[in-house]
Structures are given as C-alpha cells and as structure tokens.
Amino acid sequence: MTVDLQAREIQPLRNTFSHVARYVGDDKPATRYQEATFGAQATSNFHYRPTWDPEYELFDASRSKVVLADWYVLKDPRQFYYGTWTMARARQQDAMESSYQFVESRDLINKMPDDLRDKVCQVIIPLRHVAWGGNMNNCMIAAYGYGTAFTAPASLHAMDELGVAQYITRLGLALDEPSVLDAGKEAWLKAPQWQALRHLVEDSFVVRDPFEIFVAQNLAIDGLLYPLIFGHFIDDHVALNGGTAVSMLSAFMVEWHEESNRWVDAVVKTAAAESEANKTLINEWTHAWSKRMHDALVPIAQMALGDKGASTLEDVFTQFQARCKKLGLSA
Amino acid sequence: MSNVFIAFQVNEESRPVVDAILADNPNATAVYSPGLVKIDAPNSLVIKRESIEEQLGQRYDLQQMQVNLVTLSGHIDEDDDQFTLSWNH
Prior knowledge:
The structure holds 2 protein chains of 2 kinds. By secondary structure, chain A is mainly α.
C-alpha cells in the first residue's frame, strides 16, 4: 500500500483583525507590533465619567492640549510591544550581568582612586530619585495619555526608568557600603546643589497634561541629564581618570538613552508637524522645561566636572538645541 | 541568465528580512507555499542589514537570519552589512 502525502495550501480569509486592518490594510499580514497597538485604545461606551475627574471621559484625548486627528500616528520606531521589549531588555540585562561579573572578579572597583569613587557616589547616587521621578511621570503618561501607540511605549519606558534607578542603586552598592544610598538620599533632600533639580522633578509631578509631561521628562530632563552625566561625566571624565569600571557598569543607561531617543524624537516630531498650534505648544514646553533643567544642572555640572562643568553643560545644551531643531522645534 | 534563490520559514522573524529583500531587489519575486517563502531573483540578490533594521526598528545581526533560513542557491558573498547571492562563473 502506498500513502500519498500531499501538501494543501489553505489561504486565510483575512490577514489580520479588522480594527488593525483599518490602519494598515488587509493585503498582507500585520506585524505583531501593529496588532498589539492599532485600534487597541478604548474609544466609546464609557457610560460614566470618572468620579475623581468628571470633566473628562475615562480615556479622553482632551486631557492634553496637543490635538491630533488620530493618536495612532505617534508610532514607536523601535516597534516595541511587550514581547520585543522584554527580549531586548533581557539581552541588555545579560550584558550588564557579565559586566558586573567582570568588574567583581577582577576587583576593579578597589583599583579606582578613593577620591574618584567618592565623587562618583556623590554625583550618581542621588540620580536614583530622578530616575524614579521619570518612572512616575511615564506612568502618568501611560495612565492619562490617549492612544495605545503613545501610552504603551510610555509604560515600557516607565519600567525602563525604574530599571535605571535600580542599576544606579546596584552601582552604589558595588562602589561602597549600603549606607551610601542613605547618604545619597540625604544629599537629594538637603544638599544645596540638588535642590533646584529636586524642585524641578517634584514640580513635574503635578503637571496634568500627558504630552507636556512627555516633553518635560523624556525630552528636556532626560535629554540634558544623560549626555551630561553618563556621557561627559562617566564616559569621559571618570573613565579617563581610572574609573573604567563605572563606565562598564553604567553601559545600559547610555545605550538605553540612545535607543529611547529615537522614540521620543519620533513622537515629538510627528506631533509638532501636525499643526502650527501643536508646534507652538510643544515649543513653549520644550523651551520652558529645558531652560529650567539647564539651570538646575549648573551646580551639578560644577560638582561633577569642576571648572569644566559650565562649558560642558553649555556644549550639552547646544547639542540639545540642535536636536530640537531637527525635530522641527525652535527651542 | 540564471536565477538565484533563497528560502525562509514563514514567521514573524523572517518577515522583515523578506520585506527588506523585496524592497532592495526590484526583480525578486516571492513565492509563498505552506510554511515556506522562496525568493527568486535573476542573476543576483542582495540582503542588506540596514534595510532589515529599517523594517524592524531594531539592530539586526545578519547571522540571525540563519535561524529561519531553509535553503539557497548561488555563490555567497557575506560580511557584516550585506549578504549577496550571485553566480560567479
């Protein structure tokens, strides 16, 4: 007896869900990112307005002054949804683990000069609180923003900020005794250098417009802080003075900042390009928050880089302005 | 003139690769059969890392493509940025 095996091709009747097909068409299968994102925002039949904020619907685009005809235009160029995001972060976590192993097995921390180590602790540890602020603000965007394309990456970004806070904590524990964390908190609460930045971060907690907080946190605060601290301070100053280990242990922050900037830039650029009104608003926000962040960083740049602090901060600010110009802003 | 071809399993990982190939090689044609996609192209076919990264929105190592690669024909010229199939005779 012979068995005749035949392959039979079954054509699917539809390539994707109809709410996704409305955005991308049904002529070919949608990607996982598209299926996880498009059409996922709840838009109608809310029945009741929230008792805690009856001016708005539960999900309400008018919570932001930025007006977009369709919030799904704010696509994430990294195409992150839960799956791709966790895989990317897991890879980075593995790389960080092996960096820690390398540094610890060779005792590189103890080979750093003591004053440099103290300096790193002094500058880096209080930044846990800034990263935690970034977590709060991105949670706010995820909760009150509109459109899954905008809010879903914000919630991933919130977890990333928390990850950065944890990496800073771990760095502190690698550099010194656990009491260094308490000292960092004390400095954050009381040392005069940190008060302007703390004031800024705490003021950002009461901003009610999700897009304004996006601009403030992800563009202005992080956009100035990361190049100054993890770029100029850690990777240039500390690494050159015998602290390569610190540079290795903060590799995630640099990599993550570069990667997430692509998302931040895409969102700002798209929203600003949609209308003059949006552009004016985003411009004002960028201008105000980056100016304040610049001023708050003056004492920190001074503390971190000494005499070179002021000029380095100006360089960072000039580069930030060039970045904004590329996004169609005039900040 | 003879064809070169490359075939991949049809899945989420190979899709950006196939899309990038079709965008970079206007003469290439993709034939889908159950579970498999075979791309034919006259004379040569190039796979560029940059185009795949554009489709994917993330960094891509060309060797990742081997996971879903089923078969190919042609002489291979490969480096970090591109993978070219052609006939060298």
